[in-house]
Amino acid sequence: MTESFEPKIVGFLCRWCSYAGADLAGTNRMKYPSNISSIRVNCSGRIDPNLVMKALALGADGVLIAGCHPGDCHYTNGNIKTLRRFKLLQKMLDQFGIERERVRLEWISAAEGEKYAQVARSMTEQVRSLGPLNWQRKVELTA
Amino acid sequence: MTKSKVAFNWASSCGGCEIAIFELGTKLVELSNKIEIVFWPAIMDYKYSDLEAMPDGNIDVAFMNGAIQNSENEHVAKLLRAKSKLLVAFGTCAYMGGIPALANTTTRDEIFANSYKETPTTVNPEKTLPQTKVQAKEGELTIPEFYNTVKTLDQVVNVDYYVPGCPPVGEQVGKVITQLVDGPLPPKGTVLGASDRSLCYECKRVRNERRIGKIIRTHQTIPDTQKCLLEQGIICMGPATRGGCSAVCLDANMPCRGCYGPLPKAIDQGGKMLSALSSIFDAQSEEEIEKIAGEVVDPIGTFYRFSMAKSLMRRTKK
User: Fold this and answer.
1) Over the stretch A9-32, which tens digit does the pLDDT of each residue have?
2) Which ipTM score applies to this complex?
3) Which residue of A18, B132, B194, B270 has the smallest Cβ count within 10 Å?
4) Which domains does chain B have, with CATH numbers?
């Protein structure tokens, strides 16, 4: 089953750093898996925990949140707010029974195309080895 | 003038919503000029067969409180739906699962094991667990099936209106009944008897700049009665919760626990509260943030105390 399974990962990338980093990986023709569907947001601080949970509940196998390195945020401290939310969200997702590897927070700057490719590779492999999340089906099966 | 036919019924609930209707007091007598109660098992001897005997659509407005936790709840919900022109999810349990939906953090097997085997006061040497069918000498005896996952009323039948509250506050209940009986009817799906703004607008406490350096639980302190509870480090669900209750818990120096449910455009109350709370952590570094986040003892039980069945995730993975 794991051989044919291609994980679906939703990536929320901040416009100023991580999305530009992903762009750089592309323009440099770096090879990385295409499993991350990226969504550009203005700041990682805009990512409501509900967006992460909605993605998981509606069929994503993993969620990547990526923003500027601490200190580099275009809006001064949006990424620190993300970090605060992420730490508490992580604790709550533990309670829901969602493995930590499925939801990751990474700091990727506009110059770090290689880091984006690296994160895409490692996250895709980790989620692939965990298998499909299939949240809605699980909820229905345990009704 | 013909009176409107009204029914009240309960599913998996504590009975508090029935008391909320009694809270109307003499207003209930005044209302009796307009309404005729055709089904209300909590106060009078009605049987399900009375409901079954009615023609479809016979009841004008039916109020159902309680979550759907077993096959009886679901059966009656469907029956009441068929017999009623309007069906109202009355109270937080019918609306969002309420306290019973915290069972979605565990499983039927764990609940049975705890209730019938593990508690110190239980004497059950044969380890008997509830069965839906059992053969007795009188014949086959049955009880409803207990569900693994608690559902809201609108997850099993079509619901016209919602009235939040654990329980809904008395004055709102009177207004809702009058509104539904006299009209004009609001659009289907409206949340009635509540405000469209957050509870903080009704709260009289003083807010300064919100920053939390430490989470304090209600049993660890006696809070200042004038200051915002969040500023005192107590988790108050006010920012993520609909108003409408006049902040009665805050008058009793207790934090809001979120029974009026999410604000109109929020898809998930718990996620919104998690977001509101963690963004005001007074911490910059990863260690400081982890320390404060670690002080939130039970995130699901705190943020989804009343809305687990209606949340995005709906239950934990077991």
Assistant:
1) 999 999 999 999 999 999 999 999
2) 0.92
3) B132
4) 4-99+148-182 (3.40.50.700), 107-147 (no CATH), 199-310 (no CATH)
List domains and CATH numbers for chain A: 9-141 (3.40.50)
As a whole-number percent, the residues of chain B with pLDDT over 70 amount to 100
pLDDT (mean) for B194-217? 92
Nearest to A50 among B105, B267, B286 (CB): B267
Stretch 29-68 of chain A: residues touching chain B, C-beta under 8 Å: 48-50, 53-54, 56-57
According to DSSP, the β-strands at B68-70 and B146-151 are antiparallel
Residues of B with a Cβ under 8 Å from any A Cβ are 105, 107, 147-149, 151, 266-268, 270-272, 274-275, 277-279, 281, 283-284, 286, 289-290, 293-294, 296, 298-300, 303, 311-318
- CA B71 to chain A, closest CA, distance in angstroms equals 12
With 90 as the cut, is the pLDDT of residue B194 above it?
yes
Beta strands (DSSP E) in B120-274 are: 133-136, 139-142, 146-151, 161-163
Q: How far apart are alpha carbons A72 and A80 in whole angstroms? A: 10
Place of tokens 């430490």: B214
